[in-house]
Design a protein that fits this description.
- Helix 4 crosses helix 7.
- The protein contains 9 helices and 15 strands.
- It has a single domain, classed as B-lactam Antibiotic, Isopenicillin N Synthase, Chain (Jelly Rolls, Sandwich).
- It starts with 16 loop residues before the first helix and ends in a 14-residue tail after the last helix.
- InterPro entries: DIOX_N, IPNS-like_FE2OG_OXY, IPNS-like_sf, Iron_ascorbate_oxido_reductase, Oxoglu/Fe-dep_dioxygenase_dom.
């Protein structure tokens, strides 16, 4: 099936996604007679991720219930690489206000978002390195290190946005550390220091995402297939849907649940757990009619942190986060896609 190109009507706030994507797509259509996207976008159905109530996680009164909660998270991390949490301690009001500020931010004129250097000059759109439509993400985002959130110069008239981001960063950080800690505890990690180590405001970040309505036929990537290069990601999304993940070698669409946050394992946690926890490939598919918003928190260590293993022999040779990031960037530049952990298998693997 040849993808249909439809006429779009972007607003002044939208980046020039249509022009960039159209150029890539037309080039492929002209140079690939039997071009088809059906196989890449086939979805077998909608799924409800494991839903875990974190109420008992904070309770020391009932050890059995807490243990059951930890085991449920570990099982989901091994079988799905994803799960959803409720009663997570982040208020609905904070998430609602953050979404309102996010919408106002993205409704700025495109030129302002590009030229004003808002939020540490962190605005990104599309995929500058894309050489084909399959490598292009129909989205725009602000990618903000936590250490930069409190800087006054980042916001201009958006002082309320800074306040919301500061509160959300604190709440997300606490939740991410708690979840990572109990998942490590489940694998026998017993050190008194925080797991993972060397994760602070200078290394972790928030990403504010917007996926504009897409005038092209269904199947366009809002975010191209990938795994996350961190320990753990927490995602707050609206009810539009579009997130899909790879399960049993098939793409399944994730059904949004009001009030729930999505948690997924990153590459570093998979390596540290010796492949017990899985960093699963996922993507976002753009919507023709409506825009989609999400906010992601990424738990990352310092670049010089060595990613070890919870047990020996390790499936992976030792590497630092900086080495891993550089290898990912080099692969994307040289071959157009991320290779990831397979680059770091030990010789004995």
């Amino acid at each position: 099936m040849t993808p249909k190109i439809m006429k779009g009507s972007n607003s002044v706030s939208d980046p020039p996604l249509t022009h960039s994507y159209r150029s890539l797509l037309l080039h492929e259509l002209e140079n690939t007679p039997h071009y088809s996207t059906e196989r890449d976008h086939e979805v077998v159905g909608e799924c409800e991720l494991p839903l875990i109530d974190l109420t008992s996680l904070r309770s020391e009164r009932n050890g059995r219930e807490r243990r059951a909660c930890v085991e449920a998270m570990a099982k989901a991390s091994s079988e799905w690489g994803f799960f959803q949490v409720v009663n997570h301690g982040i208020s609905h009001e904070l998430l609602k206000e953050m979404k309102q500020e996010q919408v106002k931010l993205f409704r700025l004129p495109f030129e302002t978002k590009v030229e004003s250097k808002l939020l540490n000059d962190s605005y990104r759109w599309g995929t500058p390195t894309a050489t084909s439509a399959k490598q292009f993400s129909w989205s725009e985002a602000f990618h903000v290190p936590l250490a930069k959130i409190s800087e006054d110069s980042n916001y201009e008239e958006f002082s309320s946005l800074r306040e919301m981001m500061e509160k959300l960063a604190v709440a997300m950080s606490e939740l991410a550390r708690t979840l990572a800690g109990v998942l490590a505890e489940n694998l026998g990690y017993s050190r008194r220091s925080t797991f993972p180590e060397n994760c602070d405001e200078s290394t972790c970040f928030l990403r504010l995402n917007r996926y504009p309505p897409c005038p092209f036929a269904p199947g366009t990537f809002g975010l191209m297939p990938h795994t996350d290069s961190d320990f753990l990601t927490i995602l707050y999304q609206d009810q539009v849907g579009g997130l899909q993940l790879m399960k049993d070698s098939k793409w399944v669409a994730v059904k949004p649940i009001p009030g729930a946050l999505i948690v997924n394992i990153g590459d570093l946690f998979q390596a540290w757990s010796n492949d017990i926890y899985k960093s699963v490939e996922h993507k976002v598919v753009a919507n023709y009619r409506v825009e989609r918003y999400s906010i992601a928190y990424f738990l990352c260590p310092s670049y010089d942190s060595t990613i070890g293993s919870c047990k020996e022999p390790s499936l992976y040779k030792k590497f630092t986060f900086g080495e891993y990031r550089k290898q990912v960037q080099d692969d994307v530049k040289n071959i157009g896609q991320k290779v990831g952990l397979s680059r770091f298998f030990s010789i004995a693997h």
